[in-house]
Write a structure and sequence with these properties.
The protein is of the alpha+beta class. The protein has two helices and nine strands, in the order ααβββββββββ.
C-alpha cells in the first residue's frame, strides 16, 4: 500500500510541475502569481502525504519486527516445554513402533513375490515389568485394507549368541484384511525384534531400540519331504524376514 501511495504521489508531482509550466506559458504575471501559489499548496499537501506515508511505513516495520520477535518467543517457549523422553530400563517403558512389513516373506527362488500385501502404521506398546506387553494404540495406514492388531504377546530380553548384543523380542497377532493376497481374514503371528543399545548423555545412561525387524515362522521341508521318518508337518520351521520397524520412546502417562 505504501509503495502504491508513493507512486501516486510521484505521479501527482509530475502533473503539478507540468501544470505550473503550462500556466507560465499562457498566463499573465498576475495570473502566474496565483498559479504559483496554487502549485505551492499542492506541493505542501504532497509533502505532508509523503511524511504520513513515511511514518506509516516506519510503524509497519516496527510492528513487523515485534511480531517476529513474539513468534520467536512463542516457538522458544514451546521448545522449552518439550521434555526429552529417556528410559533406563525396558520394564514399564512405552514405545512408538512405526512399521512396514509384508504379509508373507519373499519367494525362495529369489524373485519378487507379487502375491503379498504390504502394511504400514504405528503401534504403541508398553513393556510391563512382569514380562507381559500392553497394546496402548494402533494407527494403521490404508483404511479398510489394513491389518488389525488383536494381541501383543509378552516380551523377552535376549543376548544373541552370534554378536553378543542385547535384544528384545515379542510377537503380535495380526488379523489380515479381506483384500490380503496371501491369507485373507486370517490371524497371522509376526515376531518383532530390536537391538537394545545403551547411550550416555548429560543426564546419564538411557536405552534405545535399533534395527527393528519383523519376521514370521514358516515351515521348512526337510530332506526327503515332510513325510520322511519321524518328520511331520510343522516340526521344522525357520523365521523369515518380512519387514522393519522404527522404535521411539513415548511418554509414560
Amino acid at each position: 500500500i505504501i509503495k502504491i501511495d508513493s507512486f501516486l504521489l510521484s505521479t501527482k508531482n509530475i502533473l503539478i510541475q507540468s501544470l505550473v509550466t503550462k500556466r507560465i506559458d499562457n498566463y499573465s504575471k498576475k495570473e502566474l502569481l496565483f498559479a504559483t501559489a496554487d502549485a505551492e499548496n499542492l506541493r505542501e499537501t504532497a509533502k505532508k502525504l509523503r511524511e504520513e506515508a513515511e511514518v506509516l511505513e516506519s510503524k509497519l516495520k516496527v510492528d513487523g519486527r515485534r511480531d517476529n520477535n513474539n513468534n520467536n518467543n512463542k516457538e522458544g517457549d514451546n521448545d522449552s516445554k518439550v521434555t526429552p523422553i529417556f528410559y533406563t530400563s525396558l520394564k514399564e517403558s512405552i514405545w512408538n513402533l512405526s512399521y512396514r512389513f509384508a504379509s508373507d516373506p519373499p519367494s525362495d527362488n529369489g524373485q519378487d513375490n507379487n502375491d503379498v500385501s504390504n502394511y504400514s502404521g504405528k503401534l504403541t506398546v508398553k513393556l510391563l515389568s512382569n514380562g507381559y506387553s500392553e497394546l496402548i494404540s494402533h494407527e494403521p495406514i490404508g483404511g479398510s485394507n489394513s491389518i488389525t492388531i488383536q494381541k501383543v504377546w509378552g516380551w523377552d530380553p535376549e543376548v544373541s549368541e552370534e554378536d553378543g548384543l542385547d535384544y528384545v523380542l515379542f510377537s503380535v497377532n495380526a488379523l489380515l484384511p479381506p483384500m490380503d493376497t496371501n491369507a485373507p481374514n486370517e490371524v497371522v503371528r509376526y515376531y518383532w525384534q530390536a537391538r537394545v543399545d545403551t547411550t550416555t548423555n548429560n543426564e546419564g545412561k538411557y536405552l534405545s531400540l535399533e534395527d527393528g525387524t519383523v519376521t514370521m515362522k514358516k515351515d521348512v521341508e526337510p530332506p526327503g519331504g515332510f513325510w520322511g521318518a519321524f518328520n511331520g508337518a510343522g516340526i521344522l520351521a525357520q523365521f523369515r524376514f518380512v519387514g522393519n520397524f522404527v522404535a521411539k520412546p513415548a511418554a509414560n502417562k
